[in-house]
Structure formats: structure tokens, C-alpha cells
Design goal:
408 residues, alpha+beta, SH3 type barrels, Serine Threonine Protein Phosphatase 5, Tetratricopeptide repeat, two-stranded antiparallel ribbon, 18 helices, 8% strand
């Protein structure tokens, strides 16, 4: 519950994340033709000596990439320097092979023509096609067996996820694996994300609940190996990065600017309120979300987040009012909204009302979530305690929710 913007879409914001790479913005220099500079074929002998700087890449894995630069091209350079001579210009959309050594900022690149040179790693985006998805396999492939144990056909769900099927994508990302199966799944996840693209993946993430977004945070993973995950997402998948790796100060600045441009933008007020709440600025959060409701009183997500803010702001009666309005607008989200309503009654010393709600929904599943109502409530209680918010009846509710029968 502590994570906000749990229903509805997070408005995509135009926040730039750039790297200072002079070579990327230079005017292109006409390159020599492939016939003049191309490397020999694998089975062709050559008297030309391999440059010493390339020899250290002999044992480094090779990847496929494309240029991702605002200029639409990048200069391939003779050496690992921004001022090194230009060999040729590489256009965006033209795949090439590259190697990246750990800790290095420059990648060894080999074009389809055979020409080799250097590019700054920050301007290279991984490139995949549908052929990179796993084929149908016989029994024995570890990730297939792991998925099968969870009732999932890995081939079918992966193919559907790569087409952008929302339910398949959710099932695919929610798969749990370890060891070799986990490594393989991470690699295929990278392929799927690149195939559906930043816009579609960000849209998908916005529509998921807090718990699911925590599953796919990717923080601390090597999901886009050989690159650093957060840096890569911010550079090449920026819309998804703003959801997976939020910078709340930057979001507040962005939505403040959006409000200045359009004072009737209810979502901008809501988003700024959510960002304020993540920083524990609950008075400011409540003010923004109430303004969003004034501009658009039919959006249930606003009432859900307003109720959460009021709970953390120690105003349970206002949390109750917001939750009741949310229930009136969206009965389909009743189970989720009733977590806030139950908390409101509990902290307002209306124990019997709180107890009735907790017991009524004890085993219910949250909409589109794998978590149950009881698990959500127990998680909320932990977060309340972490924030210094307690009530003597919380232990009674915990006993009710963790027992097999009703506790008197």
C-alpha cells in the first residue's frame, strides 16, 4: 500500500537522461568504403596484424546492437577516444556486432561489412529479433521444466508476451526460477522487453499493482548484460525507467512544470501528489490529490491514494470517507479499497467495523494480483509500524488473519 499510483496510468514525463559523449553529436565524416576497410572472411588468410587493443577482447562475449542516439547516427572511430579519427558513419537501425569489456566505456564494434572500430557504449542499444526467443523444446530444458511446474508452457507464454499480450506478459514476468533456469529466464526477459519496446512495456508497468511492480524492479540484476541495468534503462528505455527507478524530486519538478502549462491537468496533480507521498510529504500530497479529485471526481485511483495518504497523515476518518467514495465509484476494486477502509476503522477505534471487513475479505484475492487481502493487510501493518503508526488492536487483527478460523 505504501507505494502510490496503484491504479490507472502514470503519465509519461519528458525527463531526459543523457551522457556527455562529444563523439555522438559530431557531424559525420565520410567513411571509407567497405571494400577498402573490410576485415577478411573467417576462412580467409590475411597478412594484416590484429591491432593490440582488440586482442584483449578475444575472450569477451559478442552481442548485437544498434545505434540509439538523438542524431540518428554515430561515428565509428579508430581508437577509444572521442577525438580519434572517424572510420565511417553508422546509421540508426543498422545492426552490428559488439563486445564490451567490464569497466570500459568504449565498445569494440564490427559492422556487417566487416569494418571494425570503436563506439562509446552509452550509445549502443541491444538488438534482438523474434529468432532470439526460445524454440519449442523437448523435456529436459531447465527453464521449460521450471515453468511447467508452475503450470506454464514457457514457449507459448514467451511468444505471446513478445507480441505484447498483457496477461501473458504478466505470467511470464511473474515466473520464479533459480540457478541456470533463472539466468536463462533473465536473458529471455531482456529479449521480450526489447521486442515489445519501451512504450508498450511502460504502459504495461503503469497498469500493474505495487506488488507486481516490485517483482519486476530489476534493481541489482544483470537483465541487460553487459550493461549496468539502471543506467541502460534510463538511456534506452526511459519511460520504463521512470517507473522502475523513480526519482521523486525530478518527478515533482516535472509535474509542477506540467501544471504550470495546464492548470486543469488532474493527472499531473495526482502524480505530483504520489511523488510527494513517497517522500513522506503527506500534507502536500493530500492537497495535490484533492485538487485532482476536484478536477476529475470520477477517477477511483485518486480516492484510493487519498485514503492511503490520510492514513499515514494520521487522519483515519478522512481515510474512511475517501475509501467509501472509492467503493461507490468502483465496486470492481472493492477488495483493494477495503484494505484502506478496514485500516481507517481500526485507527478510528471502530474495532467491530474493522474486524467485519478484515474477516469478510480475509481470503479474497486482490484484483489482478497473486496476493491475498490478508497478505496485503499484514504487509500494510508492517509498513505502518515502520512509519511509527501503531494501534493496540493491530495484534488482534493479525491473529484473526493468520488463524484458520475466526478468533473471538
Amino acid at each position: 500500500m505504501r507505494s502510490f499510483c496503484t491504479l490507472g496510468a502514470i503519465v509519461a514525463c519528458a525527463i531526459g537522461y543523457g551522457f556527455s559523449v562529444p563523439a555522438a553529436n559530431e557531424k559525420p565524416v565520410a567513411g571509407k568504403s567497405a571494400s577498402e576497410k573490410s576485415s577478411p572472411a573467417p576462412d580467409e588468410k590475411s597478412e594484416e596484424t590484429v591491432p593490440r587493443e582488440f586482442l584483449e577482447f578475444a575472450d569477451v562475449s559478442e552481442f548485437r546492437g544498434v545505434i540509439d542516439d538523438p542524431a540518428g547516427y554515430l561515428n565509428l572511430r579508430k581508437d577509444k577516444r572521442a577525438d580519434a579519427p572517424v572510420i565511417t558513419k553508422v546509421e540508426a537501425g543498422d545492426p552490428f556486432q559488439f563486445k564490451k569489456k567490464e569497466g570500459e566505456d568504449w565498445c569494440e564494434v564490427k559492422l556487417k561489412s566487416g569494418v571494425s572500430g570503436w563506439m562509446h557504449c552509452s550509445r549502443i542499444k541491444l538488438y534482438f529479433t523474434k529468432a532470439d526467443l526460445p524454440p519449442k523444446s523437448e523435456k529436459g530444458v531447465e527453464i521449460d521444466e521450471t515453468a511447467r511446474e508452475q503450470g506454464v508452457n514457457y514457449y507459448e507464454v514467451t511468444q505471446a508476451a513478445a507480441r505484447g499480450d498483457q496477461q501473458a506478459l504478466k505470467t511470464f514476468l511473474a515466473l520464479s526460477a533459480d540457478g541456470a533456469a533463472a539466468e536463462e529466464h533473465d536473458g529471455i526477459t531482456c529479449v521480450v522487453i526489447h521486442l515489445i519496446g519501451d512504450d508498450a512495456f511502460a504502459k504495461f508497468l503503469r497498469e500493474q499493482g505495487r506488488k507486481f511492480r516490485e517483482i519486476v524492479s530489476f534493481e541489482g540484476t544483470d537483465i541487460v548484460y553487459p550493461f549496468e541495468t539502471e543506467e541502460y534503462f534510463r538511456q534506452h528505455l526511459p519511460k520504463s525507467a521512470r517507473i522502475l527507478f523513480p526519482d521523486y524530486n525530478q518527478l515533482i519538478r516535472h509535474y509542477t512544470h506540467a501544471i504550470q502549462l495546464d492548470p486543469k491537468d488532474d493527472r499531473a496533480y495526482w502524480e505530483r501528489g504520489c511523488a510527494q507521498a513517497e517522500k513522506d510529504h503527506y500534507d502536500a500530497a493530500v492537497k495535490d490529490i484533492e485538487k485532482a479529485i476536484e478536477l476529475n471526481p470520477k477517477e477511483v485511483a485518486y480516492y484510493l491514494d487519498l485514503g492511503t495518504c490520510q492514513l499515514y497523515n494520521r487522519k483515519p476518518r478522512k481515510a474512511i470517507a475517501a475509501s467509501l467514495k472509492g467503493l461507490e465509484l468502483s465496486p470492481d476494486n472493492a477488495v483493494l479499497i477495503k484494505t484502506n477502509l478496514g485500516h481507517g476503522y481500526l485507527f478510528d477505534n471502530q474495532f467491530e467495523k474493522a474486524k467485519a471487513i478484515y474477516l469478510e475479505n480475509k481470503d479474497a484475492k486482490l484484483r489482478d494480483e497473486q496476493q491475498t487481502f490478508s497478505e496485503e493487510v499484514l504487509d500494510d501493518f508492517k509498513q505502518f509500524r515502520d512509519a511509527g503508526i501503531t494501534h493496540p488492536d493491530m495484534e488482534k487483527i493479525e491473529a484473526l488473519l493468520t488463524s484458520k478460523g475466526e478468533t473471538q
